[in-house]
Design brief:
The complex is a heterodimer of chains A (about 260) and B (about 425).
Chain A: H1 10-15, E1 22-25, H2 27-32, H3 34-49, E2 54-55, H4 66-70, H5 74-90, E3 95-98, H6 101-110, E4 119-122, H7 123-132, E5 147-150, H8 164-171, E6 176-178, H9 208-217, E7 223-226, H10 229-241, E8 249-252, H11 253-260
Parallel strand pairs in A: 1-2, 1-3, 3-4, 5-6, 5-7, 7-8
Chain B: H1 4-31, H2 43-55, H3 64-93, H4 98-102, H5 105-134, H6 149-173, H7 176-181, H8 188-191, H9 199-224, H10 231-240, H11 254-264, H12 296-304, H13 310-314, H14 316-319, H15 326-346, H16 358-361, H17 365-369, H18 376-380, H19 387-400, H20 407-419
């Protein structure tokens, strides 16, 4: 049994008259999806370890509406956005961090036009900040010498041109970082984006996650690193399809950092 | 009688340019059929993008082989056109190689030498392109949407360029007085012996090549409008107006915003009479089912596409055998726009419903729903075309006007509506992970 996680909510903080430095936007996947919840917890362990003054919205958080927007339902998206913005603004939130690149993109780029203006960070950016400001120290890690390949999430990479933060964080593990042939701006999507995660793919000759897993396997990795709960699902399934789950792990950057430090 | 060639030349020139101008006007009109979109922001960045991406070919070279040969053709095309200036002056005033009489011999020789070298390089590059399309059969030129006219169009352009470059070199090679200068004929001096030394034959060949060259250029100019090759002009405005915001940022629909604001406003009176000055226009349509519903930038994008297929070759859906091809989205949009344009021409300036639209008749829902919105196509386009925006506009139409999303997506959206998550979990359980 690990140490109890400290996860204050905005409501609790407010009741105590406190204001957190940053809001952790957990997102729907991070709240409900069993695999993604592990990422959420790993990230909270990092936040606790670095003694970050943060809070979550808890039951006051609702879907960003990103999925609705990508599905073409602009009305549902804006309803969700306006409701969330009302909550966020009421708590005078200034800074947000999230483990989901889809929430990240939506909050950062699509909320401002509807009245929600915040500084929004992806968790890899925030972890990078914690490391460079010495709030988080990375001691010798179990991943030294391990072969790690990073799969760029579309909504972090191409959508927002952030390719370096996750790689910079992974570099602190002293692992061997391997690049897939298609990486950074030419990275192949895992197949989950644009709400594909929630529907059967159209007829074709292969599933996208299988093709992307093949890209990853070509680097002969021990670990496939991701930075997105949906990529996590797709890549984990892909590794299973290729029957390599016994020797290849799929892990989020936050999980790698947390477990390397025994958190 | 001596003026006959000059007059003939002027007539051909005016007709050639005039017909092209007429089609350019049509092109503008068709693009303006799209919805208004204000793109007047951040001019310095836009000029910079145009300079880097269109003029500087910065995205072409991401693929080094085609990028390299494309730069040769592009630079050759632009620079050799300086020669056309001389041809026009000669043609109108009946002079012969006006440049050689007004420029110092060394300058003229240098210019023509450069043109000859470039013409040769362009010829070689075009042959390489032809081989890639017809012998190596590169996958992206073999897709379903590239059958028939698009394939022929691509080859015609290459043949045009081969012929024009050959005519230019033959014209120089058979020009005895030019060869006698012994300057500027850096390539043509090796071609000249092929044509013998009969002055009369040489003169006839030289004149024929000269006329065919300029007529060929005018035909090529007019061919542009009917071809994918318009990119040589439209790449410039297209990169200027290209998206500057992060690729992941999809525009918010203002129409929806005003409705949502009204719904959320506790003081709003749902039975209130429409405010003074409100128009009786039918409520605007959400999303796009036809080209008129797209923005003018989408339509400019469509005309600018040269069907290179870099987008499609990076598309995850296409790579895994789905029907979606971002290039086809652009080609369909252009073809439908042309059809609408012709309809307007045939009906004295107004569009008469032809029972067709972009959705279903050109682009199927199956293609639209295969998109992962990953932006690979947008990233791949060498001239800033955004196929994803069209896909999203059409999805919007399907969902908001026809409620025609795939069933699983409807379930997902119902969940978001009811409990604020794409899965049927209670919002009150959102923090349960903390204690699990």
């Amino acid at each position: 049994m690990s140490e109890q996680l400290i996860v204050p909510t905005m409501a609790e903080m407010m009741a105590e008259g406190k204001q957190p430095d940053i809001l952790f936007w957990v997102g729907s996947a991070g709240s409900y999806d069993d695999r993604a919840k592990k990422i959420t917890k790993a990230f909270v362990k990092i936040l606790n370890k670095a003694q970050v003054n943060f809070a979550v919205l808890g039951t006051e958080e609702s879907a960003t509406g990103d999925l609705a927007k990508r599905s073409g339902n602009e009305f549902l998206f804006q309803m969700q956005a306006v409701m969330n913005i009302e909550v966020l603004n009421a708590y005078e939130v200034k800074r947000i961090v999230t483990c989901d690149p889809h929430s990240f993109n939506c909050l950062k780029n699509e909320y401002p036009g509807l009245g929600g203006k915040y500084e929004v960070l992806h968790h890899t950016q925030f972890i990078k900040e914690l490391i460079s400001s010495k709030k988080l120290e990375i001691k010798d890690s179990d991943y030294k010498g391990k072969r790690i390949t990073f799969h760029d999430p579309c909504y972090l990479g191409r959508a927002n041109s952030e390719y370096e933060a996750p790689r910079d964080v992974l570099k602190t593990l002293n692992a061997t970082l391997l690049e897939m042939k298609r990486s950074k701006s030419t990275a192949l999507c895992c197949g989950a984006g644009g709400a594909q995660m929630f529907k059967e793919p159209e007829k074709g000759d292969k599933d996208i996650n299988e093709l992307r897993t093949e890209d990853a396997l070509k680097t002969n990795p021990d670990i496939i690193a991701t930075g997105c709960p949906y990529c996590m699902t797709m890549m984990s399934d892909g590794v299973k399809v290729k029957e390599r789950e016994h020797d290849i792990k799929v892990m989020d950057v936050a999980e790698l950092i947390a477990s390397s430090q025994g958190l | 009688m001596n003026y006959l060639p000059n007059i003939l030349f002027a007539i051909i020139l005016i007709a050639g340019i005039g017909y092209f101008a007429r089609n350019v006007k049509k092109l503008f009109r068709n693009i303006k059929l799209g919805k208004a979109q204000d793109i007047s922001d951040n001019k310095p960045q836009r000029w910079k993008n145009m300079a880097m991406i269109a003029l500087g070919q910065s995205k072409m070279v991401k693929r080094p082989v085609s990028g390299f040969f494309h730069i040769i053709v592009y630079v050759g095309f632009v620079i050799i056109n300086i020669e056309v200036l001389e041809i026009i002056i000669d043609g109108v005033f009946g002079t012969h190689r006006i440049g050689s009489t007004i420029l110092p011999a060394s300058v003229y020789g240098f210019l023509i030498s450069s043109f000859e070298i470039l013409a040769t390089l362009v010829f070689i590059a075009v042959v390489v392109f032809w081989i890639r399309r017809n012998i190596i059969k590169l996958k992206r030129f073999m897709s379903a949407e590239m059958k028939g006219w698009p394939k022929n169009d691509g080859n015609f352009i290459l043949y045009f360029e081969m012929v024009l470059m050959t005519l230019f070199l033959v014209m120089n090679a058979t020009d005895s007085s030019f060869q006698a200068l012994e300057s500027g004929n850096i390539i043509s001096q090796y071609i000249a012996p092929l044509f013998g030394d009969n002055p009369e034959t040489l003169h006839i060949i030289e004149r024929s090549a000269w006329w065919l060259h300029i007529i060929g250029i005018l035909i090529f100019l007019n061919y542009l409008y009917f071809s994918k090759h318009l990119h040589i002009l439209l790449a410039f405005p297209n990169t200027y107006f290209g998206k500057l915001t992060p690729k992941g940022q999809f525009p918010n629909n203002d129409l929806v915003t005003s409705e949502v604001k009204l719904m959320m406003d506790p003081d709003a009176d749902p039975y209130a009479a429409p405010p003074e000055g409100a128009t009786d226009e039918p409520p605007a349509k959400f999303g796009a089912s036809d080209v008129q519903d797209l923005s003018w930038l989408n339509l400019l994008n469509a005309y600018s596409c040269t069907e290179c297929g870099r987008c499609t070759s990076e598309c995850p859906a296409n790579l895994t055998g789905k029907k979606l091809s971002p290039r086809k989205i652009m080609m369909d949009t252009r073809d439908r726009l042309e059809e609408v344009g012709k309809n307007i021409d045939a009906n004295n300036g107004t569009f008469v419903d032809d029972g067709k639209q972009l959705l279903n008749d050109y682009i199927t829902p199956e293609e639209l729903w295969a998109c992962t919105s990953c932006n690979a196509c947008v990233e791949a386009c060498p001239i800033s075309i955004d196929p994803l925006n069209i896909i999203m506009e059409m999805r919007s139409y399907l969902v908001m006007e026809e409620s025609a999303a795939p069933m699983e997506l409807n379930n997902m959206m119902t969940n978001i509506e009811n409990n604020g998550a794409p899965w049927p979990y209670n919002q009150m359980d959102r923090l349960n992970w903390k204690d699990e």
